[in-house]
Structures are given as C-alpha cells and as structure tokens.
Write a structure and sequence with these properties.
With 79 residues, this protein is mainly β. It contains 1 helix and 5 strands; from the N terminus they run E-E-E-H-E-E.
Length: 79
C-alpha cells in the first residue's frame, strides 16, 4: 500500500492505494525481508495527515514488520 499525497482522514477514509512494485535488491550491508505482517502506527497517521510529511511520494508506510530474511548482502551479518 502506498501513500501518494497527504490528506485529512476525516475527509478521506482510504488514503492508501494498492500497488505492485518490483522487489528491491539489498545493497552489500542490507537484508531483504519477505514480510508476513506489517502494522501502521501513529507515526504513519501523522505522515498521512501531513503533521510529519514524508520526504517523498509515493511513500510505502509501515515500519513494524514481521517476516523472514530471504536475501542478505555480502556485509550483512546482524540478522
């Protein structure tokens, strides 16, 4: 789900749009996670309504994830 612009949630109850995006490739110090579940918290509500506007659009919201590491860069060893 992506956010294309900020909005007032009392006027727009469906601010997120479904989108199919290419799978990212992790850099040498990153991991790629296959997400099983993702939560949207109050921080994302602030982004949606513009109190803390995202740095760019479209924005993929959600940073509270559960998943499995499926690919790791050469220098990624923490997870």
């Amino acid at each position: 789900m992506i956010l294309k612009q900020t909005c007032n949630l009392s006027e727009n109850l469906l601010p997120l749009e479904m989108a199919v995006l290419p799978d990212p490739e992790p850099t040498e110090d990153q991991i790629l996670i296959k997400i099983s579940a993702c939560g949207v918290c109050h921080t994302e509500l602030d982004e949606i309504e513009g109190r803390t506007p995202p740095a760019f659009f479209p924005m993929i919201l959600g940073h509270e994830v559960v998943g499995r590491v499926i690919l790791a860069g050469k220098k990624a060893s923490r997870f």
